[in-house]
Design goal:
By secondary structure, the protein is mainly alpha-helical. The protein contains 4 helices and no strands.
Length: about 100
């Protein structure tokens, strides 16, 4: 069950996780809600970095064709995550949300 007090108290920290995943780790470590979103933000960042590294290994034409898709997808997932945190939901991001790195 989600704790409404935890969600209300740590909503801003949870939303910030999609820009600075480490911020909730510093200011809201005790919050299950904030830690959930810190995990989602970290997974999103690592997937975006990994995708960029993978694309850099492709021929330049393929890299230029696919890079905007990766960037737009990452931004869209960031918006979804921020919206979920704002609305007090602990809902996994599409495609990558089941990965757990931060407990």
């Amino acid at each position: 069950m989600h704790n409404p007090t935890d969600i209300d108290s740590n909503k801003n920290a949870a939303m910030s996780a999609y820009l600075f995943f480490w911020l909730p780790l510093m200011i809201a470590r005790q919050s299950r809600f904030a830690m959930y979103h810190a995990n989602q933000g970290l997974v999103l960042l690592l997937c975006a970095i990994g995708s960029h590294i993978f694309l850099a290994a492709l021929p330049p034409a393929a890299e230029q064709l696919l890079m905007p898709f990766i960037d737009i997808t990452a931004i869209a997932l960031m918006v979804v995550g921020i919206r979920n945190a704002h609305d007090g939901r602990m809902k996994p991001l599409p495609f990558i949300g089941k990965i757990i790195l931060v407990k």
